[in-house]
Every structure is written in C-alpha cells, then in structure tokens.
Specification:
CATH architecture of the largest domain: Alpha-Beta Complex
Strand content: 25-35%
Number of domains: 2
Distance between the termini: 46 Å
CATH class of the largest domain: Alpha Beta
CATH topology of the largest domain: Naphthalene 1,2-dioxygenase Alpha Subunit, Chain A, domain 1
Structural class: alpha+beta
Largest sheet: 7 strands, antiparallel
Number of helices: 11
Helix content: 25-40%
C-alpha cells in the first residue's frame, strides 16, 4: 500500500478514535436468513461462483521452485498446479489421459515427473506426456495429443489463480479491478513463504464464515480476552468499489504511532488491512506476513463449510525484526502467533457462526439486521444478491414496532 494512502487511512482511524465514531453505512439493512439455508441458492452459488469463476489456490510461495506442485480437490475437478521447468505457473486436470485415474495424490511437494499409479504413464511439470510402458504393445500414440488437460491459470501479484472449469477463462482485470491490481502490486506478496496451514470444517454456511470478517463491533464482547487486547473494537476504515472492498481494523498500537512523524507511520502497525476477493477470500497483510483465508462451501449441505487459513511469511522482515530484538530467529514465535489467530477464528468466531446456523436451520427468524457500523455486511450480501440477479436489500432508517 502506498505510503500516502497509509497516512490517510491512519488519520481516519485516529479521527474515529478521538471523536468516538465509526464507519457509517447510512442506515440499516435486513438480510434474509434463507441465504444461509436455501439449497437452490447454494447450487447456484456453487455453479456460478465456485466452478464458474477462477479460484485462488494459494500464493507464489506455495510453488517456491521449478518442479514444485500442489493438488486441490475443492471444486469438484481434481487440480494439479505446478511450476514448470521454465518457472511458469501451470495448472491441469489431475487425471491421467489413459484411463482417467488421479495422477498425483500428494498434497504438495517437488517432482520431476508425475506418474499415474494405474499404468505408470508419466508427465512432466509442464503437463507433457513423457513416458508410457511398452508403447509397442499399447498401440500408436502421439504423446503430444495426450498431455494432461490444461486449465486456465494465472499468477499475478504473488497470487495463484486457476479456473476449475476446463473451458473457463480468467479475467483478473475484472476480478481484482484497477484498485486491487494497483494496491496488491505494492505489498510484495510474491516474496512470501508459506509457514503454517490450518483447516476447519464448521457447521455453518460459508457466507456466515465470511460475515465474521466484516465488522469489529463484536470484538469487545466475543473477543474480550483475545483480540480486544490488541485491537480497538468498533473502529475501522471501510472502502468499496463494485464487488471489491477493503477494511482497516484498528490496532491499539496506533495510540503510540500518533506520536511519530508521519514519515514513520505504517498501516500494518496501526491497523490490520482486510481485503475481500469475491466471493470467498480474505487477505490480511500485517507486519511480517499475510493471512489468507479461503472459505469453501460443502457441496451437499448449505449448513456446512471448510475454512482454510494459511499464514505466509516475509522472511526478510522477520529476520530484521529478530535482529532488532537481538535474537537469532523468530520463526517459531511467528508460527505460534499464526496458529493462535487461526484458533481464535475457530473457537470464537465460528462457534458464533454455528450458533447462527442453528437458528437459521430452524427458520426461527426470517431476517437478521445489519447495523450502520457494519457496512461490509451490507456490501457482502448485496453483492451476492446482485451477482445472482436478485433485488438488493434496501437501506432503511430505523426498525420500529
């Protein structure tokens, strides 16, 4: 993030703190609870957004060298993503062109060849068929015709996007917009290395999981003994543009930063940027790394989802922090911080999300309320509705008997 933007955002946070105010959506909105339970809507979301749009599989640090690979089975089509011999990011249907068996079953690693366990047909990291046993017995095969089926894939700003539909195309100019394409270019995401990974299956709709990242109104109650120790609750910056939005949560470290000259202001010290990538991704850069949260619906149950929470490290920034503290290495401390943060999401936020899902499943409430201080929730759900061609929820001044 450019320094002039950081200063502007920090000044906004300080103004809210000093005035006792927060962001204001301009009114209230009512949200239908059926959005968390309706199987027909869940089917449309899956087909149009999770199979019909490119998906973020991870970051450049997930494929740190030529021959690196990762596999993904989240979207109904088995995916093998690689960094080929020339260092390019590639993605393929992870199925042998002989009889369709899964070629690579490991989650990640580095290999020169991917060999199908069925008949030992083998492929290189560029997807080319490079070997099959006893070709003179099998019959005449042009290897160039039977490489792994390639999927559209693009690496941009250190982010790895793949379209799970073999006929799909990737348009990151639309997905990231001018705003994120500009701002992401400043963060150095391409220099990150993957440090920790957590995965939580939770009894709540994927959109309820996303909702937990949409406001800090709950910090002083739900996170009274955890996040509230380091964050000012109910204070944030918020900006949106079409299907994009960015929040800045307010850290208590901002209280000391106001004493520094503006040239030394740092948004990752004063706050926590929270970027939303439609429909299901949260990116949170902070002092020495980035949290990546990807929320995946349960294909067969609208009331369940899986959250994958990965932490990526700026090694040079961590080493500099260690040197400043006079210690040799802070990797273990960084890993513990990442794990603790993930567990707060699991043990506090998602416990509430499961509680909300229980209510929604019982159809106890037709609607819930989004407050004026929760603009991201307004934006999440009206964006979802707009993308589905539904009428957006109107802004209302008040709720009265």
């Amino acid at each position: 993030m450019r320094h002039a933007v950081q200063v502007e955002l920090i000044k906004t946070l300080l103004a809210h703190l000093d005035a006792g105010t927060n962001v204001d959506a301009g009114g209230l909105r009512l949200n239908e609870t059926a959005t968390y339970t309706d199987p027909a809507q869940a089917d449309r979301e899956w087909d149009e957004w999770f199979v019909g749009l490119p998906q973020l599989l991870g970051m450049s640090g997930d494929l740190p060298e030529n021959g690196s690979f990762l596999t993904n089975n989240e979207f109904g089509i088995p995916i093998l993503a690689t960094r080929d011999q020339s260092g390019n990011f590639r993605a393929f249907v992870n199925a042998c062109r002989h009889r369709g068996a899964i070629v690579e079953s490991e989650a990640r690693g580095t290999k020169r060849r991917f060999t199908c366990p069925f008949h030992s047909w083998s492929y290189d990291p560029g997807g080319a068929l490079v070997g099959l046993p006893k070709p003179e017995h099998f019959g005449e095969v042009d290897k160039e015709c039977l490489g792994l089926r390639e999927l559209a894939a693009e690496e941009r700003h250190g982010l790895l996007f793949v379209h799970p539909d073999p006929g799909g195309e990737i348009d990151l100019d639309w997905l990231l917009g001018d705003w994120f394409n500009d701002e992401f270019s400043t963060w150095g995401f391409d220099k990150l290395e993957r440090l920790t990974a957590d995965e939580y299956e939770t009894a709540c709709n994927w959109k309820l999981a996303m909702d937990t990242f949409g406001e800090t109104y709950h910090f002083t109650s739900l996170h009274a003994n955890t996040l509230a120790n380091n964050f000012h609750g109910n204070v944030q910056c918020y900006d949106e543009d079409g299907h994009l939005h960015r929040m800045i949560l307010c850290k208590k470290a901002i209280d000391e930063m106001r004493r520094l000259p503006e040239t030394e202001w740092d948004i990752t010290v004063a706050g926590l940027p929270v970027y939303w990538l439609f429909p299901n991704v949260i990116l949170m850069p902070f002092e020495v790394g980035v949290f990546l949260v990807r929320v995946i619906p349960d294909r067969n149950d609208p009331g369940r989802h899986v959250s994958k929470i990965d932490f990526y490290l700026h090694r040079d920034k961590l080493d500099q922090a260690a040197a400043d503290m006079g210690v040799a290495d802070l990797t273990e401390m960084a890993a513990n911080i990442a794990t603790n943060f993930s567990e707060i999401i699991r043990d506090e936020d998602y416990v509430m999300s499961s509680s909300q899902q229980t209510s929604a499943n019982g159809a106890a409430l037709d609607q819930i309320v989004f407050g004026s201080n929760e603009p991201a929730l307004h934006h999440y759900h009206n964006t979802y509705r707009r993308m589905l061609g539904l009428e957006v929820s109107p802004l209302i001044d008040s709720i009265k008997a």
